[in-house]
Amino acid sequence: MQPLRPSVLAKATVRFETSPGYQAQVDWGRFQVDWNGEPKRLYAFVMVLGYSRMMYVEFTEDEKLDTLMGCHVRAFEYFGGCPEVVLYDNMKTVVADFDERGHAVWNERFARFAAHHGFLLQSCRPYRARTKGKVENGIGYIRKNFWPRVKTFTGLDDLNRQVRDWLDTVANVRVHGTTQEPPRERLIREGLKPFNPMPFEEVDRHARKVSPDACVSYENNRYSVPFEWVGQIVHIQDLKNGKIRIYHREQLLAEHPKATGKQQRIVNEKHFEGLGTAGRHKVPQPMPRLVPQAIPEVLERDLSVYEQFTDEAVANA
Fold first, then answer.
1. C-alpha to C-alpha distance for 306 and 160, rounded to whole angstroms
2. Each residue of 106-139: pLDDT tens digit?
3. How far apart are CA 26 and CA 121, in angstroms?
4. Domains of the chain
């Protein structure tokens, strides 16, 4: 065993315990089922609260962004609130890229979803998946304890009813091996904060290009933005409470009352201040250009010819 001991020690980690209400961890589990005689993969969204170890599980058809956001909302509803921070591995629907310093660049739409509901995003360090060990252990527990119980199911709805029953009667009420308390009892001390009751879909933003008159179109009405943004792509957020907000990335450019009719133009005159002088440069005046005309060719004759014409005119008079 001596040659193996250094590698074993290298895997040792210090367990990280979070304070109540601070963190949840999220990941996907993948499960194979017999679907009408054919093998099919299902996806299990799993969220575990760091302090209480309270768990939420939902089986889905895919791992797409809209699916992920819907699962978050239903998890918050199940827990009765949301934590300050949610930790993820580097799933594409959450982490779009990494900058030169190794910091996560968030998926823009998912970042807006998180801001809408009031929680912060946190990613695992690359190649350090053990950072989210609580949810990894949760997925392992699902495989060992719940999955063997599933003999048949009639569809995803039925499978999710079965896993919800398991959560309520087994997973969240058993004495947890680490905390030595049932997650349901520790949930009382989590102190989760309320999440936004307004559905994110109702306030999601709509991309528009700013027209030359410094306005954007939304639902057959036009709203102004500062004229410097002409030609740029901005995003409109309809708050559904009588207000329209217009953003560029996370910068608020304008806020307007929402038009109550159609074909209206809602403007803020301040958006056009400086338009007459912005970028003003002395424009060279057009200079008239002389185009020389061709000099007509003059036929030269001897003066005796003209004398002849004069004599003929007198004779005919």
1. 120
2. 999 999 999 999 999 999 866 555 567 899 999 9
3. 11
4. 14-187 (3.30.420.10), 204-272 (2.40.50)
